[in-house]
Q: What sequence folds into this?
């Protein structure tokens, strides 16, 4: 198993965990926010689950599949996180189209978008830098 397949498999487990956050007692507060920061709805859960399945399939397809997953997933999630940081709304959940720009405290935008920025950034870096060869 190549390093990219191992990373892609790691993304499978991380994304599966993200999809399960709403269903683990004690993770969400009384307002339905995970870790008191962001509310994940069934659409978000479905997006994370679909991404997890994509990561697993890519892992099973081999090095090239994992590289493609990490590059595409990374670009999509990093872009979504950066847009969310700038506007308060991302595009993966159609928030920018449905809600437009939101006037949210910058600290909140950082906390809410850091997961996509970090996951997307590392995936993109992995796909582009570690995928050579």
A:
């Amino acid at each position: 198993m190549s390093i990219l397949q191992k990373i892609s498999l790691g993304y499978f487990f991380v994304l599966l965990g993200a999809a399960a956050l709403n269903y683990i007692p004690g993770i969400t507060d009384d307002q339905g926010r995970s870790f008191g920061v962001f509310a994940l709805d069934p659409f978000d859960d479905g997006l994370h689950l679909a991404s997890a399945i994509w990561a697993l399939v890519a892992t099973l397809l081999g090095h090239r599949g994992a590289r493609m997953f990490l590059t595409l997933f990374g670009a999509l999630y990093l872009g979504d996180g950066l847009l969310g940081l700038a506007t308060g709304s991302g595009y993966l959940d159609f928030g920018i189209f449905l809600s437009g720009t939101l006037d949210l405290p910058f600290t909140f935008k950082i906390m809410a978008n850091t997961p996509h920025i970090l996951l997307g950034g590392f995936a993109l870096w992995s796909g582009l830098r570690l995928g050579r060869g």
Q: What stands out?
A: The chain has a mean pLDDT of 90. The chain has one domain: 3-130. Helices lie at 3-20, 42-61, 63-87, 95-98, 106-130. The longest strand covers residues 33-34.
